[in-house]
């Protein structure tokens, strides 16, 4: 079974803190993704990566950065957390190809106080 | 640009009845894939069913089927014989073939509540 593991289910941080959300997949997938989910807005893409050290901006990259030093690991970084970044963050991975399923982690619910 | 529209924020269905969740999409690419995911209250996203734009038949997976009407650009999910465990958020998503690396684009979702 494909497994996408997010390091934390719940996080509470203070405004201005640097926050790292980690994601690891075990199926040698080329693609990895970070989405943000808010009520009524669905899933919005923050960043994705199609190879080690490669990254592409999604729809809402402002205030975020990413790192992919190894194929299996994709990190989302909030350089200076703000209250409007309180949200559910979902990591996903997939093989290349139109029909390939995106597999998701369990999500990290981040609260910024 | 790709776009997914789910017009039903919430729906109720009686247990054992069938329910249709609507999804319309917009893309200029002739080759694309359509996906449905389920998200229970626990938060994980569960893949349900896939339909390719060139597939001749509607996709089916157990109690799930996809009513694909290409000319109308609709890809409705049909759940037959609803169960209490079907209560969840349901998301329609698509990916076009202009690049195989393209992430899925999601709709805003429909919350389904199954009533005993």
What is the compact description of this entry?
Chain A contains no helices and 11 strands.
Sequence-ordered SSE layout with sheet pairings:
The complex is a heterodimer of chains A (113) and B (116).
Chain A: E1 4-6, E2 10-13, E3 19-25, E4 31-38, E5 42-49, E6 56-57, E7 64-70, E8 73-78, E9 87-94, E10 103-104, E11 108-112
Chain B: E1 3-5, E2 10-14, E3 19-21, E4 24-26, E5 32-39, E6 46-52, E7 60-61, E8 64-69, E9 74-79, E10 88-96, E11 105-106, E12 110-115
Parallel strand pairs in B: 2-12
Antiparallel strand pairs in B: 1-4, 3-9, 5-6, 5-10, 7-8, 8-9, 10-11, 10-12
Characterise this structure:
Chain A contains no helices and eleven strands. Chain A has 113 residues and is mainly beta. In chain A, the strands form two sheets. In chain A, strands 2, 4, 5, 6, 9, 10 and 11 form a seven-stranded mixed sheet that branches. Chain B has 116 residues and is mostly beta strands. In chain B, 0% of the residues lie in helices and 52% in strands. Chain B has strands at residues 3-5, 10-14, 19-21, 24-26, 32-39, 46-52, 60-61, 64-69, 74-79, 88-96, 105-106, 110-115. In chain B, the strands form three sheets. In chain B, strands 2, 5, 6, 10, 11 and 12 form a six-stranded mixed sheet that branches. In chain B, strand 10 and strand 11 form a beta hairpin. The model of chain B has no long low-confidence stretch (mean pLDDT 94). The chains are: A mainly beta (113), B mainly beta (116). The interface between A and B is medium-sized, with 29 and 28 residues.
């Amino acid at each position: 079974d494909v497994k996408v593991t997010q390091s934390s289910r719940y996080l509470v941080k203070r405004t201005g803190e640097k926050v790292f959300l980690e994601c690891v997949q075990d199926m040698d997938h080329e693609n990895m993704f970070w989405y943000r989910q808010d009520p009524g807005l669905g899933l919005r893409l923050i960043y994705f990566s199609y190879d080690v050290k490669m990254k592409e901006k999604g729809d809402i990259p402002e205030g975020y950065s990413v790192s992919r030093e190894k194929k299996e690991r994709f990190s989302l970084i909030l350089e200076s957390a703000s209250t409007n970044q309180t949200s559910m963050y979902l990591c996903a991975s997939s093989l290349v190809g139109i029909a390939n399923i995106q597999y998701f982690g369990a999500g990290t619910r981040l609260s910024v106080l | 640009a790709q776009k997914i529209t789910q017009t039903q924020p919430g729906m109720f269905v009686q247990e054992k009845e069938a329910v249709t969740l609507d999804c319309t999409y917009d893309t200029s690419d002739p080759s694309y894939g359509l996906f449905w995911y389920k998200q229970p209250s626990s938060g994980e996203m569960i893949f349900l069913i896939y339909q390719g734009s060139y597939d001749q038949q509607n996709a089916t997976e157990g109690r799930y089927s996809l009513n694909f009407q290409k000319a109308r650009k609709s890809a409705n999910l049909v759940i037959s014989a609803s169960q209490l465990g079907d209560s969840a958020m349901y998301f329609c998503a698509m990916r076009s073939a202009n690049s195989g690396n393209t992430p899925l684009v999601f709709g805003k979702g429909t919350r389904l509540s199954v009533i005993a």
